């Protein structure tokens, strides 16, 4: 996963991946007597579907959701999207650049559905076999958004059985970079960058006293020190 963390302001962009759960990944069926299909279809992005936890402990659990309004075909058509295996750009299977290429997609109420013909390469044959066997059962995608801008990502929380359930709802994205076939779509990314990203979000949740309250406390300490001095 690729990620860039900058100073947290309205222009902050974070580039990361989100794993898609059951994505109906399959090789298209053909009629009896026809040549075996090489067309792989599925959903690369699912709307309004909670992700695996960004973090989870006794006090809180956080997940993220892609809102339906976050992604449109117009946004996708403006991107250079590579379809890969395991986010490895050396294992490219298809590509859409400015809406044209060997990767096609549609946007419906469920999410972003894709379709492509696996290339006649060792990687294409491998992808077909692993999808047919069910060894590759889902997808993930790389995208960017402004996590510390509430116009792009909305944070809500509720307490359930003493645990704070936090949801980061992505309402707008700034770019999509790849779709990929994933072996474990139900599990969160465990890379260092992902952990640093989650840590950054958690730090934002830590209550901090207002600056004026800190100033009052410092003034009180000064008064106490002055009172102890011998005249």
Description of the structure:
- The protein is of the alpha+beta class.
- Helices cover 21% and strands 39% of the residues.
- A six-stranded mixed beta sheet has the order 1-11-14-6-7-8. Strands 2-3-10-9 form a four-stranded antiparallel beta sheet, covered by helices on one side. A four-stranded mixed beta sheet has the order 4-5-13-12, with no helix packed on it.
- The radius of gyration is 23 Å and the shape is elongated.
- The chain starts with 13 loop residues before the first strand and ends with a helix.
Main beta-sheet annotation: 6 strands, mixed
Q: Spans with pLDDT under 50 lasting ≥5 residues?
A: 1-10, 207-211
Distance between the termini: 65 Å
Strand arrangement within the widest β-sheet reads 1-11-14-6-7-8
Q: Beta fraction of the residues?
A: 35-45%
Number of helices: 4
